[in-house]
Structure formats: C-alpha cells, structure tokens
Amino acid sequence: MSDSNTEDHYTSTNTIEAPESDYLFIQPSQIKNAGKGLFTAIDIYEDEIISLFKGEIIDNKEAAIRAQQNKDRYFINLLDGNIMDSMYTDCYAKYANDAEGLSQSNFKNNAAITLDDDNNVCIKAIKDIEYGEEVFCSYGKPYWKKHGE
C-alpha cells in the first residue's frame, strides 16, 4: 500500500528514458570564446534530468596537484568531500556552459547542477528548453573567482 503523502518529503526528478547520445549533441557554444556547448535535439521540460556527470573520483590532495597544473576546469565537488574530474571522461554534462558567468552574454541559465534521486551529480532543467537550444547552468561564484579571466 502506498501513501501519496510520502512524495511531499523529497523532490522527485523526471528522467528522460533514452540514451543521452540520442537527444544531446556538442557543437560550438553560442557564447563567444566559450568553446564547445551542450545542445538538445528534443524538447526538455522543467525538472527533467538532462545529463549525468561522469568522471574520475579523486581526493583533495590529487585535486590540488591538478589545480596547480591548471587542469581543474572540469571539477565537481561531491558531498563526501571528494572531487569528480570529468576532464578526460566522455560526458555530455561537462559541455554545459555558464551563461551568467564572467562574460556578458544575452543568454540565461536554463538548467542547474544538482543531484538526482540516486544522488548522482547531474544537470536538471529549471525551465522548459526547446529543441535545438543550448543548455546553460551556473558554475557558482567560487569557480569564477578562481578561473576568472
């Protein structure tokens, strides 16, 4: 017997039931000098999970070494204190740019970095994203403080 009130205790996320390669693609970002960007080949709806982050899990000591080598642009801080480094991992999520970072762009972030129901780091739509649009999400102020040009 299920109790419908249990859904009030957490935010359920919607997952797109297809491989990411079927609905996401990489091409030059619309933001000047931002490199590659993440785009959708389907309509994505608010609160849908767009893409999971994948990468090597490293500790803070290894993260510090990579940061000194300026190889820390694809770091994600994990809840357990470790770092996920997506630099050398095939991962669509890492191509989502921050439209509201340091550069002045005409775009707004339409997604957020968060956790899915299984505590995987992911990008989730914060509003509807139409077919062909670029996916943008905030990297946070600490990222821009360190990587500001």
From TrEMBL:
Domain of life where this protein originates = Bacteria
Q: Which InterPro entries match?
A: SET_dom (IPR001214), SET_dom_sf (IPR046341)
- Domain SET stretches: 20-140
Classification via Pfam families: SET (PF00856)
Name the UniProt record assigns to this protein: SET domain-containing protein
Species of origin reads Winogradskyella eximia
